[in-house]
Design a protein that fits this description.
This protein is of the alpha/beta class and about 200 residues long. The chain contains 6 helices and 7 strands. It is about 30% helix and about 25% strand. The longest helix is centred in the N-terminal third of the chain and has 17 residues, at about 40-55.
Length: about 200
């Protein structure tokens, strides 16, 4: 059975893969993220490919490597992880009462050594927030939850109280569109027929 490697340190992606019954090893990609484009779809695809390739060069055997990256986009502006509580406040002020997009790029790098096949795709989910007062924003920042998350919020956490609606895949906003991931694996014969993946 081919080994599956998740090239991410995200506990949320680890939970999502475990949730669908996948057996995998975590080897986080630690390289510097470099975006060469302002197009959000191309940016997340590029970042996910960088992560998968970083781990790929360390592996000689026939493996399946999953790289992923998530960004939040508001009115064409890419919002990564906030650099400070003040930065988080700016992001949340932009998002409150409005609709934004969450893009996750995923790369599947499969096969032995230098002959691996790369499949990269991106998924978009649109999220609308209720209006938030400054007191609510400051309360949320004090919890510490926004500081390590793209767009300064975690939909699976305390920020759930601010979410008015979601159009698309909820798991994509958490950090990994597992249904699309499975379908892409199945289409290429990379998912075992007698188990989930």
């Amino acid at each position: 059975m081919r080994q599956i490697i998740l090239a991410s340190k995200s506990p949320r992606r680890k939970e999502l893969l475990s949730q669908i019954g996948m057996t995998f090893t975590v080897i986080p990609a630690c390289g510097e993220e470099r975006i060469q484009t302002t197009d959000p779809v191309e940016a997340v695809k590029e970042l996910s490919l960088q992560k998968a390739r970083e781990i790929g060069v360390q592996q000689d055997s026939d493996v399946l490597i999953i790289g992923a990256d998530t960004i939040v986009v508001h009115e064409g502006q890419i919002l990564g992880k906030p650099s400070s509580p003040q930065d988080a406040a700016v992001m949340l002020s932009m998002l409150q009462g409005r609709t934004h997009s969450v893009f996750t790029g995923v790369t599947l790098l499969c096969g032995p050594g230098d002959s691996r096949t790369a499949v990269t795709f991106a998924e978009e989910t649109r999220v609308t927030f209720y209006p938030m007062s400054n007191d609510e924003i400051q309360w949320y920042i004090r919890t510490g939850e926004p500081l390590d998350k793209a767009g300064a919020y975690g939909i699976q956490g305390l920020a759930a109280v601010f979410v008015r609606s979601i159009e698309g895949d909820y798991q994509n906003v958490v950090g990994l569109p597992v249904a699309r991931l499975y379908q892409e694996m199945k289409r290429r014969g990379w998912a075992d027929a007698d188990r989930t993946v």
